[in-house]
Amino acid sequence: MDYGTISKKTLEAVLKFKYSGGPGKVEGYYRELSLGVHVNVEPSLFFTRVSTLPATSTRQCHLLLDIFNPTEHELTVSAKNNQDLVLHASECQRMAIQVDRFDFESLPQAEQQTLHFSSPKQLQEERQLAHGCQISSKLGICWSIISFCFLL
Fold first, then answer.
1. Cα(112)–Cα(100) distance, rounded to whole angstroms?
2. Taking phi first (over 0 means left), then psi (-120 to 50 degrees means alpha), and beta for anything else, what does residue 81 get?
3. Do residues 148 and 73 touch, judged by C-beta distance below 8 A?
4. In terms of Cα–Cα distance, which of 75, 46, 44, 82 is closest to 146?
5. Do residues 94 and 64 make contact, with C-beta atoms less than 8 angstroms apart?
6. 114-128 pLDDT per residue, tens
7. How confident is the model at residue 152 (pLDDT cuts 50, 70, 90)?
8. What's residue 105's pLDDT?
9. Which of 3, 12, 46, 104 is the most exposed place for a label (fewest CB within 10 A)?
10. pTM above 0.90, yes or no
11. Cα 139 to Cα 125: distance, rounded to the nearest angstrom
12. CA 45, 49, 50, 54 torsion: positive or negative?
């Protein structure tokens, strides 16, 4: 996969500061400083492949996630009831998570849901988003870039 084609978000802002001190403050004088900030926001993690394997219990399965770290920093990936996975810069590793089987058809469907969307494509995208949120809540996957973590 070409990760260079993934959409990036650019944020721009102007920070304005007013400051004063000493005799000028008493007289009501102050200085203003405006600072332009330009930030490129890029993904810090990609799931490049997802597959499943049966578990010893028929009510569970192993979800296999191939995870790629496109950053220049080491990061840690965690999931519910799982060991942490450390990914070095530009590294890809597989994470196995044992999960309860889940039937997407069992998701409650709102009767008015089909009326809300103007096209079948919109309805499909909304269902995919709902499925993604359901998976996310069950797995509890989170990650942190180690070089930006501070111990208090």
1. 30
2. left
3. yes
4. 75
5. yes
6. 456 678 888 888 877
7. very low
8. 66
9. 12
10. no
11. 21
12. negative
